[in-house]
Amino acid sequence: MIFEANVKRILERLGLDGPVTARLTDNNSLAVAQIEAEGADRARAGRAFGGMFSTTGIAPVQAVPTTAAAFALYNADKSRSIMLDEIDIALLSGTAGIGMTLLGIISQITATLPPAAAGSVVGSLSGSAMGSNAILAINYTLPTPSKNAQWSALKCIAQCGGIPGVGGGFTFEPKGRFLIPPGYVGGFTMLAPAGTTPLFLGFPKWSELIKDTE
Description:
With about 210 residues, the protein is mostly beta strands. The chain has one helix at about 40-45; strands at about 5, 20-25, 50, 70-75, 80-95, 100-110, 120-125, 135-140, 150-155, 170, 180, 185-190, 195-210.
């Protein structure tokens, strides 16, 4: 087997259907997607989506919940899985206490399907006409967790003085480790001090792809 490669910076786009040489780095490593931005192909294919759970802020809790999810991302698609790329938590009003842990869970739906929250929005992140069947809900009661559905700490922060002002917050990037199969729901809740009546908004970003989850 002969593998031909070309050591150069960027292989120019060719308007040909014939074979092209692969590009190597100056250390003879095969360059793989070093030019395109991360997630560029998913956006180009219309598989990248984003949204807001609601314009209504949600208060944090001071104990690990059993079935109560402040935010719920339900995958109503029949074949595509939701791969969470990012979720942003932002202070809407009030004064947050010091520190917070974002809790997350993946659960099957055995109870009533979550209704879309008032003010929730879902849209393409690439201007694609391809739509999403995801449903964004708030204050959703999950089925009682089983051994395969337990709360996990997704992100912990410990900022001196809490989250500063309206719009302050943090981002959780799971890097492919949070996947919601068809018919499942991802639940999120903020575990934090009561502070002075803080309310938080949630902004998820995700990709929808056919995945083998068995």
